[in-house]
Amino acid sequence: MTLPPPIPAFAATPDPFTPVRDITHGHFQAGDQVVVLRGVAGGELWGDAVRVVASSWHAPTDEDGWRVRDATGGAQSYLTAHPRYLVHLTRRCPDCLIHLRAMEDYLLPKHTDANALVDCGWYTITALYQLVHVADVRGGR
What we know:
Elements (H helix, E strand, L loop, with lengths): L32 E9 L2 E15 L4 E7 L8 E4 L5 E2 L5 H14 L9 E3 L3 E3 L5 E3 L8
Antiparallel strand pairs: 1-2, 1-5, 1-6, 2-3, 3-4, 7-8
């Protein structure tokens, strides 16, 4: 018997927390290490770890954002992200911990396969290297 090719673990899981998160630009500072949560892996939340570099304008949301850098490099090592997409890694601030806990409580029970890597598909990157949450996409971009 021939098995079908593996299907990527992609789930169209809604994100009810990030689009309404009330985090101001001033919550983060240049040099902060942060994560952009993307899904679940091995029973834990996972995402892309980046470092906050400089203040920037996040055109898709018409608000102040941050230029962030992926230390691993690549074609898109610098992105602009809205503050509500970011969670502190290097310090335990109450706002980020509350957001992290809400995401864990919501996502982990939905994705219980310890071997699965689930990318919830919440983000896209524009041609201008702006990280955009699907809830913030305007006009088909």
